[in-house]
Write a structure and sequence with these properties.
The chain is of the alpha/beta class. The protein has helices at about 25-70, 90-120, 210-220, 225-235, 245-270, 295-310, 340-345, 360-365, 365-370, 380-390, 395-415, 420-445, 455-465, 465-470, 485-500, 505-525, 530-540, 550-555, 565-595, and strands at about 150, 155, 185, 195, 275-285, 315-325, 330-335, 355, 375. It has a five-stranded mixed β-sheet with strand order 7-6-5-8-9. A two-stranded antiparallel ribbon has the order 1-2. Strand 6 (about 315-325) and strand 7 (about 330-335) form a beta hairpin.
């Protein structure tokens, strides 16, 4: 064979090199060269496939980050009107369930239309008049003097008035209450002096009324105003407090309110609840606090602080946990210095029941750690969210799963008006077959999906948490998802964007206490300021009747402090959602009968 100018190397040559190679002149050497080149080609193909997969994963990650940064976070699934309905085959149970759902949808639509017509008839005529209870004062707008006199007949007479009402706003007014304590002494001067007893105040000398403390708490945790903005707020009314003064008043109020917050936490632990957490920046102290050997939470604080100091950090990511009762209209917050599982474990030390939460590792084994006292229920909103994230790479498979999950939510929509027992029965009758079908479809699709793709993660989530995703079927009190608790995180997140960080460990615990009361008041549609002021007054007066101070109990005797328009807004929004879903179920049933 023809021989080139260079010699053949012992190892496979780089295929990308432009240099020529010597071709061997015997058959075994040719075979060896071909084998080396084939191996190099295979290696390059494998490398290219890996790089392509990495590029796909990076593009998916970039898409997710861009959606978080700029996109809408809505998870509502809007189905294509041309999409065929789900085929449940000849299963009579499924067909009966679909027929029942369509019949109930028709009933919901009719009820909504009747209720809306009644509301229209009973709705008072729209008026521009302001509420009657608002203070009014009168002014008279006189015409110019020359127009009040007639040149021919003399002074004109008033024959009537045209009246307009103009709403005015006054800044909040501050006033100082001066309390005099007369001293009564015997005329002989030997029997002592009698004087009224000083009331217990928030701070020494009773310098600040509970109304001031209620305003500071409401402003910070209800309207998310940091102290420097509250300074401007109070300065507009003529008083410029220092930030330390505002903090001291708030801290004194928290000390008074702490027993009530602990009482509410005990009530929440008596029934099923949902849990979620969010990050809060905590500024580290100059030195590590002393450790209480008998307090595991104190030891955890020392460990986290020591690790942060060793890394040269000046702040850490603390965690604010929210616990929302399924049955009582109460929310409780707790603060920890890390996301470690010790946080929920300690809070739920005496809890027995169902905990609805995401599938964070700290929750997955909570049943084992609690000797099965606690049953972890997984959230279907998280499962649906993962399917949505994988829809771009696997649109057909994701659409199938999303349609099945939507069927589960349709059942929940119908179950909301039922009792706990009837809700459980409906779930067992109609949701169980759909869950069986979801699990079968996940098993069917898993082998054909790339293991590291986003859609594979969604399938793995559904596969790994099957038992937890079925827990809600066994108890009518347990919701299908944890969305109500996740919404509580907004109360922390909005504040975090304003006051930015917590200045100390005590500040974190103080924030949790006050958020417990503010959030529970908001859940009951209360005027937060009115609730906090009255509660502070009663606690300072020595009351220990915490049951009467529960927001849901307190509001019964104080209807004027209830913001009824909030309940009306929620009811109207819920009615519209039920109507929209009922119409879709009705349409799906019609399309199923006439494909």
């Amino acid at each position: 064979m023809h021989e080139a100018t260079t010699h053949v190397p012992q190892e496979a040559p780089a295929l990308s090199s432009a240099a020529t190679v010597t071709l061997p002149d015997d058959l075994p050497a040719c075979h060896a060269l071909l084998a080396q080149q084939a191996a190099a080609i295979t290696e390059l193909q494998d490398s290219r496939a890996k790089l392509s997969q990495q590029l796909e994963e990076l593009n998916l990650t970039l898409t997710k980050l861009l959606l978080r940064l700029e996109g809408h976070r809505r998870e509502r699934v809007v189905c294509d009107p041309d999409q065929l309905p789900l085929d449940f085959g000849d299963d009579p149970q499924a067909q009966d369930a679909l027929a029942d759902a369509a019949e109930e949808a028709e009933k919901i639509i009719q009820e909504y239309m009747v209720r809306r017509e009644i509301q229209k008839q009973n709705k008072p005529p729209r008026t521009e008049k302001f509420p009657e209870h608002l203070e009014r004062y009168e002014v008279t707008a006189e015409p110019p003097p020359e127009e009040q006199t007639c040149e021919t007949h003399g002074p004109k007479n008033v024959i009537g008035y045209d009246t307009t009402e103009t709403l005015e706003f006054e800044r909040p007014k501050l006033k100082v209450r001066v309390t005099k304590y007369p001293k009564y002494a015997c005329s002989q001067g030997t029997c002592g002096v009698a004087q009224a007893e000083r009331p217990t105040g928030l701070v020494e000398g009773n310098r600040f009324d509970t109304s001031i403390a209620a305003e500071i708490i409401t402003a910070k945790y209800g309207y998310h105003l940091p102290y420097h903005r509250q300074q401007d707020y109070f300065a507009a009314s003529g008083w410029v407090p220092s930030r330390s003064t505002l903090l001291n008043i708030l801290a004194a109020a928290e000390f008074v309110l702490l027993p009530l917050a602990d009482y509410l936490a005990g009530l929440v632990r008596q029934s099923g609840l949902g849990c979620d957490e969010t990050r809060v920046t905590l500024i580290l102290p100059p030195t590590i606090p002393e450790v209480d050997a008998d307090d595991p939470r104190s030891r955890r604080v020392q460990e986290v602080f020591q690790e942060a100091f060793d890394a040269g950090k000046t702040s850490i990511n603390g965690r604010m946990w929210a616990y929302r009762s399924f049955e009582l209209p109460l929310n409780v917050f707790d603060f920890t210095v890390s996301r470690h599982r010790d946080g929920p474990d300690e809070f739920l030390e005496n809890f027995q029941g169902t905990l609805m939460a995401d599938c964070y590792s700290g929750f997955q084994k909570i049943g084992v750690r609690s000797d099965e006292r606690i049953v972890h229920a997984a959230c279907w909103a998280h499962a649906r969210r993962k399917i949505l994230e994988g829809r771009s790479s696997h649109p057909t498979q994701a659409a199938m799963l999303l349609a099945l999950v939507q069927q589960l939510y349709d059942i929940e929509d119908r179950a909301k008006v039922l009792s706990y027992d009837d809700r459980r029965a409906l779930r067992q009758r109609e949701a169980v077959p759909i869950l069986d079908r979801i699990e079968a479809y996940v098993d069917e699709q898993t082998p054909s999906v790339l293991p590291k793709s986003v859609f594979a993660e969604a399938l793995a989530y559904l596969r790994n948490h099957r038992a937890a995703l079925r827990v809600y079927l066994t108890d009518g009190r347990v919701p299908i998802d944890n969305n109500d608790v996740e919404q509580l995180m907004k109360q922390v997140a909005v504040g975090r964007k304003n006051w930015l960080f917590l200045g100390s460990l005590e500040a974190g615990r103080r924030a949790a206490t006050l958020l417990t009361l503010v959030s529970s008041a908001l859940r009951n549609d209360l005027d937060v300021w009115a609730y906090l002021k009255d509660v502070l007054d009663q606690l300072l007066a020595g009351s220990t009747d915490y049951e009467s101070l529960r927001p849901d109990v307190w509001k019964i005797s104080r209807p004027a402090a209830v913001r009824t328009y909030r309940a009306d807004e929620r009811r109207d929004a819920a009615d519209l959602r039920r109507l929209r879903r009922a119409r879709r179920r009705q349409l799906d049933h019609a399309r199923g009968k006439n494909p």
